[in-house]
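Sorry, explain these tokens?

___
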Amino acid sequence: MKALLLALLLGLAPALAAENAWEPKPRSRWYPWMSLATWAAKHNATLVRAREGKVDLLFLGDSITEGWSDTSVWQKHYARRNAANFGIGGDTTQNLLWRIENGALERISPKVVVLLIGTNNLGLSGDAPNDVVKGCTAVVSSIRRRLPQSKVLLVGILPRDEYPNTSFRKAIATVNQHISKLNDGQSIRFLDIGNKFYPPPPPAPTPKNTTPGAPPLPTPRPPLGRGEGLGFSGCVVWVGGLEFVANIEKPN
């Protein structure tokens, strides 16, 4: 019996590993911080919200999107715009595709859809950057098919890791470079606000900075977000980058 169970588990592993970032798949991986039942319940909650209608501004994504809908920043800037938050923590592009194709966008017609997805493909699934590009492209295409009148604001994947030149930072840069080409200047806009989360370091000291009586050198600013979610300051940065949503809500 144990041998049979082990064989079944080993046989299941390749199937799970074979998920493609550009093909719709429901959540199949259990996490200590979110069971599959919880994920399904969250998806069902978005369906209930969609049936209520009256959504002018829709946010789609993972935990980075989900985690700040109850903040004062959200209430101040977006609640008054009939905004709905359909982010679910841990989602990959294939998970979001599945949600879109299983009712998430039915009965609503938002003016703007703000999309941020892909970091979990890199961080949790280990997908190659080119596959993540395919996944993000598939999500945008699916949104456009179902909501042809809505504008899409595609936000570049936010930074992971504290320092540049890590594998994550390079992978994110590659993905963002490619998905930025989806920007058509009309229905789809691309926005990369990653540099706002990792400000450049202060200039190196020079002899004039070290002379007696000179003002103190600036101290490095810490990163405002690390890709695992946003604190209050990270929300403020994001809002600063997204404030032109009000402009693209207006008809051409």
About this structure: Confidence is low (pLDDT under 50) at residues 1-16, 217-228.
